[in-house]
Write a structure and sequence with these properties.
This is NEBU protein. The protein has 18 helices and no strands. It is an all-alpha fold.
Length: 242
């Protein structure tokens, strides 16, 4: 009874173009290391052709030469033997170049040509700048600016001369202060003026001798019949032995 079922279970028929089967094949191809490096392995079997003038080869050689210490010092090693053997220092190009550099750096030699050319100035007389300077000099010249009028004479009794003299006298400081000059040094006050009387009264008020008169300085005489004098005489007679 079960023999046919068991035999049927062992025979499984799956369609090869189902989506699950196709997806499984694609995943297997993606994760397969053999398929991943298959193109590289086939390329290695074919070999490669690298020419000597290829750009990568030239780039690699240039980088190697730049990085090489020997190539870096090759020019210096070749120039070592050329530093000596010159007949004189002037014929050595490096020494001549150093001397030239020092001459350029020297300030005196740098300004020598300028100092020599300062005194050699050649300007044509008809240059625009010279003509402009001459015109400017004429404009600012005091001689041409002040043109004195004719020197004429005037009569002393003319009206304008008299008027000018009066104006000069009014403006003259000496004439203006002449009244003050003759009064300078004169001090005078009237004897009965208010200021003089006020000064005398103030002097009397401030005089201590007149304000405080001592009694012993006053002139007086004693009265002969005063009670004090009569009592004194009586006591003298009573006490007198004579």
């Amino acid at each position: 009874y079960t023999e046919a079922w068991d035999a049927d279970k062992k025979s499984i028929h799956v369609m090869p173009d189902t989506p699950d089967i196709l997806l499984a094949k694609a995943n297997a191809a993606n994760v397969s290391n053999k398929l991943y490096v298959q193109a590289w392995e086939e390329t290695k079997k074919k070999g490669y052709d690298m020419r000597a003038d290829a750009i990568p080869i030239k780039t690699a050689k240039a980088s190697r030469d730049i990085a090489s210490d020997y190539k870096y010092k090759e020019t210096h090693e070749k120039q070592k033997g050329h530093y000596i053997g010159c007949p004189s220092a002037k014929e050595d190009p490096k020494l001549a170049w150093a001397a030239r550099a020092m001459a350029l750096q020297n300030d005196r030699l740098y300004k020598k040509a300028y100092n020599d050319s300062k005194t050699q100035i050649h300007i044509p007389v008809d240059a625009l700048s010279v003509q402009a300077a001459k015109e400017c000099q004429n404009l600012v010249s005091d001689i041409d600016y002040r043109q004195y009028l004719h020197q004429w004479t005037c009569l002393p009794d003319q009206n304008d001369v008299i008027h000018a003299r009066q104006a000069y006298d009014l403006q003259s400081d000496n004439v203006y202060k002449s009244d003050l000059e003759w009064l300078r040094g004169i001090g005078w006050l009237t004897e009965g003026s208010v200021d003089v009387v006020k000064a005398k009264k103030a002097q009397e008020l401030l005089n201590d001798r007149l304000y405080r008169t001592r009694p012993e300085q006053l002139k007086f005489t004693s009265i002969t019949d005063s009670p004090d004098v009569v009592l004194a005489k009586t006591n003298a007679m009573q006490l007198s032995d004579v």
